[in-house]
Amino acid sequence: MAESPELIIHHLRLSQSDRVIWLCEELGLPYQLQCYDRDPVTSFAPAAYRALHPVGTAPVIQDGSTVTLGETNAVFEYLLAKYDPQGQLSLPPTHPNYPDYVFWLHHTNGGIQPALNDLMFARMAALPADTPATQVMQGRLDRSLAAMEAQLARYPFIAGETFTAADCMLLFPLTTFRIFMPYSLEAYPHIVSYLGRIGERRALVVAMEKGDPGLKRPMGAEGAVADEEGPQKA
């Protein structure tokens, strides 16, 4: 595996960039970690972070002096293509579970996260649960979680018998995001068991402590509730 000591992960704390740290730890990839705290009043990324990339959102990586890349799926594909050529954390198109791998790698941010974001904003705006748009997003989330539950009833990992980058992708909506927008996984016992399994991975433990030291992520059925001072910390 090629090494890249010039790789920098710009991690916005309490954000989906935690997945990039975990991916690099799983790959054993050398990297520099630069962490940024959210604004204590608005919870937005600080100006220094937003200036890193034209989109202004997490995650952002830099690789050497020529590459600055944002967008979670793009960052994952870049790192896997360049630094995991043997496919340690991916499945080839010839693998029978390749459709599962590629679907969950992209559906997490393409389907689950947009639904969660809309539901969070609806909750912040105190919109009734029976608002048509809210019902649509809740239905999409429910169908995604049901599909995930069925998949994890068959396999130990989201793409099958093997741990892949698609599992890293699931981290944020199932854990960190539930600090901001608590929701229950009580109806999904296989997802809860899955969180217990991945929570024991050494690379995940190391990555989370590096990125957000002491943060209590919900890894069970219930989501954490942020108090008046912000998300819960140890």
UniProtKB/TrEMBL annotation:
<feature type="domain" description="GST N-terminal">
    <location>
        <begin position="4"/>
        <end position="87"/>
    </location>
</feature>
<feature type="region of interest" description="Disordered">
    <location>
        <begin position="215"/>
        <end position="234"/>
    </location>
</feature>
<feature type="domain" description="GST C-terminal">
    <location>
        <begin position="94"/>
        <end position="219"/>
    </location>
</feature>
<dbReference type="GO" id="GO:0016740">
    <property type="term" value="F:transferase activity"/>
</dbReference>
<dbReference type="InterPro" id="IPR004045">
    <property type="entry name" value="Glutathione_S-Trfase_N"/>
</dbReference>
<dbReference type="InterPro" id="IPR036249">
    <property type="entry name" value="Thioredoxin-like_sf"/>
</dbReference>
<dbReference type="Pfam" id="PF13409">
    <property type="entry name" value="GST_N_2"/>
</dbReference>
<comment type="similarity">
    <text>Belongs to the GST superfamily.</text>
</comment>
<dbReference type="InterPro" id="IPR010987">
    <property type="entry name" value="Glutathione-S-Trfase_C-like"/>
</dbReference>
<dbReference type="InterPro" id="IPR036282">
    <property type="entry name" value="Glutathione-S-Trfase_C_sf"/>
</dbReference>
<protein>
    <submittedName>
        <fullName>Glutathione S-transferase</fullName>
    </submittedName>
</protein>
<feature type="compositionally biased region" description="Acidic residues">
    <location>
        <begin position="225"/>
        <end position="234"/>
    </location>
</feature>
<dbReference type="Pfam" id="PF13410">
    <property type="entry name" value="GST_C_2"/>
</dbReference>
<keyword id="KW-0808">Transferase</keyword>
<dbReference type="InterPro" id="IPR040079">
    <property type="entry name" value="Glutathione_S-Trfase"/>
</dbReference>
